[in-house]
From TrEMBL:
Domain RecF/RecN/SMC N-terminal: 2-506
The protein, known as: DNA repair protein RecN
CDD domains linked: ABC_RecN
Family recorded in the similarity comment: Belongs to the RecN family.
Function: May be involved in recombinational repair of damaged DNA.
Coiled-coil boundaries: 166-220, 255-289, 329-363
Annotated Pfam families: SMC_N
Keywords in alphabetical order: ATP-binding, Coiled coil, DNA damage, DNA repair, Nucleotide-binding
NCBIfam families per the UniProt record, alphabetical: PRK10869.1, recN
Source organism (scientific name): Mycovorax composti
Lineage: superkingdom: Bacteria
Length: 551
């Protein structure tokens, strides 16, 4: 419920505040007084785009702030929690427009985006303006109306769960089918590439090791010559180095008792002689292991040539990268074998989910169809009540492919003149007819759709007398369980108010501004009487006005 509205520096409104009643709030005033400007300001805190031309005083910013009681609304409390906004008993929504044209929005003093503000506003206020036909012609709104009447909430929850699972499994199946098609296109080529790599049967780091071996074999003679010479110098020949070191060690040892440093030096010579003797043995072993093998060189060259060709083909530089490619190709070939089983399993899932979707969808459809005769009859009766005796509504349900809200294609068709020619609402109904039709529909589903504050901006255009009286009765009925705010020119509707606000212009200094005040009972009588008979109401008009208020 909108408890309080504060407007500062918006259009010709300098500053005004309104405290609304929880029931039926009526706003009246002369044409051009600024009634719709108030609705325009309210639109700003409902998430509409800001128009900087509305700032008459460019020296200060525009502020619109609304206070709503929403502590018992679970959807709003959930929204606040999900968006990390403070949960307070009174919800504060504020919009500021700077003189530079920058717009900011706040919920409970926390900055928010316009998207968040708009999302919240749909839970707070339902604003219906003259010629505003969007929601009435919208298929989703029409579907929501039938679902509210049919009470399909529990069915819809199960349906949407099954529908989401069905769509997800369809998507997964499609991806697998596309993957299979791609695999099949690539399968022969992948098999050829795999066979080529498998035939070479490379081992880890093999090509790098073969390169090292080839270098050794290609230089075998030089290596052996160097090894023989080194071995000879160390262990053989006329004066082997190891033998010389042994002799020198023995020579120094004979004098070791005469100088303190000689024992250590003698030991070091002995260690060097032992180490060189060991090196000589290793040189001999290595020399014996090296054999020039022309056939082995040819085998290595052929294998390296085959390996280098595959490296160049696949754009890699090592044996292990080739082995990795081989592994990937093997996995792709294996996937071709496995994907058929996966597809078969997914096809079963899709079929099962589809069966469930249609089964629940059919229950929802039957529940909706069951409501149609009574709904059309009630709308017909209410249209007659509001001055449209020849008008009627027809609801058409056709089966379609499953969607988020069921398997029904729902359309409201309208006939204003008993022509028998039912056509889409927005193509045949006038602005006034649309407004009254929307009022009738909203009044029928208001309880079940848990509609927020309902605001009607001059939807009574084109009616008077008894029809206007009936519109007032319907609004008054709506206001028993929810807040209604209505801008009207009809005395019959104004008479139904729980709180009557009067919008007027006044001269302050050198400018004209819009203001508003709540009327007392006697002021209401006078205002309604003026609506009936003019600026100077007759006694009969005053009496008539009093009767309207007392009814």
């Amino acid at each position: 419920m909108l408890q309080h509205l504060f407007i500062n520096n918006y259009a010709i409104i300098d500053e005004l505040e309104i405290d609304f009643s929880s029931g039926m709030n009526i706003i009246t005033g002369e044409t051009g007084a600024g009634k719709s400007i108030i609705i325009g300001a309210l639109n700003l805190i409902l998430g509409e785009r800001a128009d900087t031309s509305a700032l008459v005083n460019k020296e200060k910013k525009c502020i619109i702030e609304g206070s709503f009681s929403a502590e018992d609304n679970e959807a709003i409390q959930r929204f606040l929690k999900e968006n990390d906004l403070d949960e307070q008993p009174v919800l504060s929504v504020r919009r500021e427009i700077t003189n530079a044209g920058k717009s900011r929005a706040f919920i409970n003093d926390t900055p928010v985006t316009l998207t968040q503000l708009h999302e919240l506003s749909e839970m707070l206020v339902d604003l219906h303006q003259q010629f505003d036909t969007l929601s009435l012609s919208d298929r989703q709104f029409q579907t929501n109306v039938l679902d509210a009447l049919a009470d399909t909430h529990s069915f819809l929850e199960k349906y949407r769960s099954a529908y989401i699972s069905w769509r997800q499994s369809q998507k997964a199946l499609q991806e697998l089918l596309e993957q299979k098609h791609q695999f099949e296109k690539e399968s022969d080529y992948n098999q050829f590439q795999y066979d080529e790599l498998a035939a070479l049967a490379l081992q880890e780091n093999e090509l790098e090791q073969l390169e090292t071996e080839l270098k050794m074999l290609s230089n075998a003679e030089g290596i052996k010559s160097a090894l023989v010479r080194a071995y000879g110098e160390l262990a053989e020949g006329e004066q082997p180095i190891t033998q010389q070191l042994k002799s020198l060690s023995q020579l120094l040892n004979s004098y070791s008792e005469y100088h303190q440093d000689l024992p250590e030096l003698t030991e070091r010579l002995r260690s060097a002689q032992i180490e060189l003797s060991d090196i000589a043995s290793e040189l001999e072993r290595v020399n014996d292991s090296i054999l020039y093998d022309a056939e082995r060189i040819e085998v290595i060259n052929e294998r390296l040539s085959a390996g280098y060709r595959l490296q160049k083909k696949h754009g890699v530089a090592s044996t292990n990268e080739l082995l990795e490619i081989q592994q990937q190709l093997e996995e792709k070939l294996q996937a071709v074998l496995n994907i058929g089983d996966q597809i078969a399993e997914l096809e079963k899932q899709v079929a099962n989910f589809e069966k469930e979707v249609y089964a629940i969808g059919e229950k929802i459809s039957q529940a909706r169809k069951k409501q149609l005769p009574a709904f059309e009859k009630k709308v017909k009766g209410m249209l007659t009540q509001v001055g449209m005796p020849n008008a009627s509504l027809k609801v058409v349900l056709n089966t379609r492919e499953p969607a988020q809200d069921g398997i029904d294609d729902i359309e409201f068709l309208f006939d204003a003149n008993k022509s028998g020619q039912y056509k889409p609402i927005n193509k045949v109904a006038s602005g006034g007819e649309l407004s009254r039709l929307m009022l009738c529909i909203k009044s029928l589903v208001a309880e079940k759709m848990d509609m927020p504050t309902l605001i009607f901006d001059e939807i009574d255009t084109g009616i008077s007398g008894e029809a206007a009286k009936q519109v007032g009765i319907i609004m008054k009925q709506l206001a028993k369980n929810r807040q209604v705010i209505c801008i009207t020119h009809q005395p019959q509707i104004a008479g139904k108010a729980d709180a009557h606000f009067f919008v007027y212009k006044e001269n302050i200094g050198n400018k004209v501004v819009t203001n508003i005040r709540q009327l007392s009972t006697e002021e209401r009588v006078t205002a309604i009487a003026q609506m009936l008979s003019g600026a100077t109401p007759t006694a009969a008009a005053i009496q008539n006005a009093r009767e309207m208020i007392e009814q």
